[in-house]
Target: Pyridine nucleotide-disulfide oxidoreductase
Amino acid sequence: MKQQILIIGAGFGGMWSALSAIRLLDQHQRLDIAVTLLAPQAELRVRPRFYETDLTTTVAPLGPLFDAVGVQFVQGYATRIDAQNRQVFYRSVSGEQSTLAYDRLILASGSQVARPPLAGIDRFAFDVDSLESAQKLEAHLQGLRHRPSSQARNTVVVVGGGFTGIETATEMPARLRAILGSQADIRVIIVDMGKQVGSVMGEQIATVIAEASDTLGVTWKLGSPVSMVDEQGVQLDNGERIEASTVVWTVGVKASALTQQIDGERDAFGRLYVDRNLKVLGQDAVYATGDTAYAAVDDLGNHALMTCQHAIALGRSSGNNAAADLLGVQPIPYSQPKYVTCLDLGAWGAVFTEGWERKVVLTGKEGKELKMQINTQWIYPPEAKRDIALAAADPLIPVVA
Ligand SMILES: Cc1cc2nc3c(=O)[nH]c(=O)nc-3n(C[C@H](O)[C@H](O)[C@H](O)COP(=O)(O)OP(=O)(O)OC[C@H]3O[C@@H](n4cnc5c(N)ncnc54)[C@H](O)[C@@H]3O)c2cc1C
Model:
């Protein structure tokens, strides 16, 4: 019987884990170890682009790539992990329950936006966290054109002034004008608990965010959280009310619930603590990667963020190291000391920063050109050709954006 490396999830972490595991097995000519990937779809859903209007190009098929390198794809949704007996229970598309056994498991099931238990949030707030929810928002925005003009119809409230909130809000004036007409009296408002515009992103970059917001007419309502959402808008904790037919929730993120089925320490986002080889602390056969892993990126105390920038490099390491474990060869410790940010700022452009303090390097049009390159090329899967795909999965390739 073949030994099994089982990967849960076909996102950035899962896809790169599969490729890097096969790369190492290939180098050792070990055909007796199989790599199986379990996910609802054999496609990479490019979540960093879900704030955009055109969602058709945000899904990259993975079937041909998996066939080219020999990943066995199982379509299904993992429901339970039995780490003691090394098996994963899953539900197939037709609803049948089945199990998959493993010798090494790589948990790459990602994350979701964390909606707090606020009145009206589940019924009335949109988000841009998944393909389905982004499509729902786009259909709703398109539907606004059929409603009579009113302040609520013309207003979008984005809750949260972090990375996702800023990208969603700064794109919104152009999206709304394309639907409601160039003369429509539109309002885009970011509601954020901070005291200053863009304060969670760092001082230097905040100045750029403020300038772009002003130019685009995106306003910030600072210092008070949202306490309630309804069909006609939001209520703030300080008693203020904003009339809006569209409310987009972007605050908070939590790691996939599957992390709770593994015994181990977790951080505030639910991510599993892992060692430098990305094996879950206290486990002998389970690795975590991407948004499910709380992993040190350097020796200075910095940790991976829940970003695809980190998920790509984490994936290349976890796959390699799970395979190395079975082969009995030296793993390659995960290391990603360089951290950059490229934040889209709609029609204003984008801002590119370097370092954990986010030192501004490029802005405006130049920043935008880089952002487009990252979003349409760099983070997409490699070509479905065996040699090219396996070469791209080398864990020592630095990820720079
Ligand atoms: C709007 C938005 C903008 C963003 N912008 C940026 C950006 O500019 N830069 C950046 O670096 N990052 C950005 N991110 C973050 C980035 O998208 C995530 O960090 C990244 O997707 C994490 O990759 P992952 O592989 O860990 O998880 P995911 O990409 O979430 O993939 C998880 C995979 O697991 C599968 N899965 C989940 N549950 C199960 C289950 N029970 N059984 C089987 N399969 C399962 C899913 O179907 C999916 O295939 C953004 C995210 C959003 C939502």
Q: What stands out?
A: Residues 8-14, 38-40, 47-48, 50-51, 77-78, 108-111, 128-129, 164, 256, 258, 290-291, 306-309, 311 surround flavin-adenine dinucleotide (CB under 6 Å). DSSP finds nine helices and 24 strands in the chain. The chain has a mean pLDDT of 97.
